[in-house]
Amino acid sequence: MSATSCTHCATQLAPDSLACPACGTLVHGAALKELAGQAQSRTDSRDFLAARDLWLQAQDLLPEGSQQHAAVRGRIEQLTWQLETPASGEEPAQAPKAWWLRGLAGAGTTALFLFGKLKFLILGLTKASTFVSMFAFFGVYWSVYGWPLALGLVIAIYIHEMGHVAMLRQLGIAASAPMFIPGVGALVQLKQRISDPLTNAKIGLAGPVWGLGAALTALLVYAATGARIWLAIAQLTGFMNLFNLTPVWQLDGARGLHVLARSERWALVAIVAVALLLTGQRLLVIVGGVAVWRSLERETGPGDARVLATFAGLVISLSLLARGVR
Q1: Cβ-proximal residues to 2 (8 Å cutoff; 6+ apart), any chain
Q2: 92 has pLDDT over 50
Q3: Which residues make Cβ contacts (< 8 Å) with residue 206, sequence separation at least 6?
């Protein structure tokens, strides 16, 4: 199947795209409208099984993480409940739940959310190229640092890359599975060119955001156990993700900086300088120096306050985590 263009803004689309990366228009809008009509008709005639099958087809045509995907998933869950509930009687009235039961339900919802993220991470390992390259990467670093630290770093890098994958799936952009390269790290190859600077920034900064989550998790485990290996993993994970924020070449920082206007770039330089004074992390000299050079460029981005805030938060948080790394 050859690449097509968005019917709304004419942006070039990859064969596997489910939504336009520039304007968000759904690629299969016409088919989705037809499936929705058929599903509603089946629901009205109480053919819940056929209606659910139609909604399942529609779900496959929507990017995960989108509002439409969530709405269709809700329809599927409702129809599943109707199929499993006996038609002869209604649900008995229930007494109000005690506060602790409501809290337990909230905790259960949170646990399911975290399980969903864990499930997503585990599914990423089903790709042979990811698993084999990851194992080879682990073997190389095991021989240098020992297996506990090597395993922690491999998992942290994997979580970083899956942050990119999650954002790409949310935006409906096709990409390869993560590939590990000893001595370099890991990468995800896009299967289409991203021309919109805001979309590029979202993809780029998603990796460090997930990487920050991995570092904070390791720090919490250290706080709970006192095992210093977890502190080392947290600090090194922070350092690696901070290095990725250097706005040069294909690093994540370059993607994030591309959308920023000149004034926002200078604001980022100031934030890097403050982080350097607070933490003494010398890597910030490189990050800030490159940011100064990029701020002097003739062409800058249209500007985006949210990207600037995300970039700034990552610089400060990761430099605090990495301040023990010299």
Answers
A1: 15
A2: no
A3: 163, 164, 166, 167
Q: Closest Cα to residue 6, out of 25, 28, 31, 33?
A: 25
pTM as predicted: 0.60
pLDDT at residue 1 in the model: 39
Residues in Cβ contact with 7 at an 8 Å cutoff, skipping those fewer than 6 apart: 25, 29
Q: Specify whether the backbone of 280 is left (phi greater than 0), alpha (psi in -120 to 50) or beta.
A: left
AA letter at 199: T
39 pLDDT more than 70: yes
Count other Cβ atoms within 10 Å, centred on residue 229. 16
HEC sequence for the chain = CCCEECCCCCCEECCCCCECCCCCCECCHHHHHHHHHHHHHHHHCCCHHHHHHHHHHHHCCCCCCCHHHHHHHHHHHHHHHHHHCCCCCCCCCCCCCCHHHHHHHHHHHHHHHHHHHHHHHHHHCCCHHHHHHHHHHHHHHHHHHCHHHHHHHHHHHHHHHHHHHHHHHHHCCCECCCEEECCCEEECCECCCCCCHHHHHHHHHHHHHHHHHHHHHHHHHHHHHCCHHHHHHHHHHHHHHHHHCCCCCCCHHHHHHHCCCHHHHHHHHHHHHHHHHHHCCCHHHHHHHHHHHHHCCCCCCCCCHHHHHHHHHHHHHHHHHHHHCC
Which of 120-134, 223-237, 268-282 ranks highest by mean pLDDT? 268-282
Which residues, at least 6 apart from 24, have a Cβ–Cβ distance to it below 8 Å? none
pLDDT tens by residue, 121-137: 555 555 655 656 666 76
Residue 120, both tokens? 């997503």
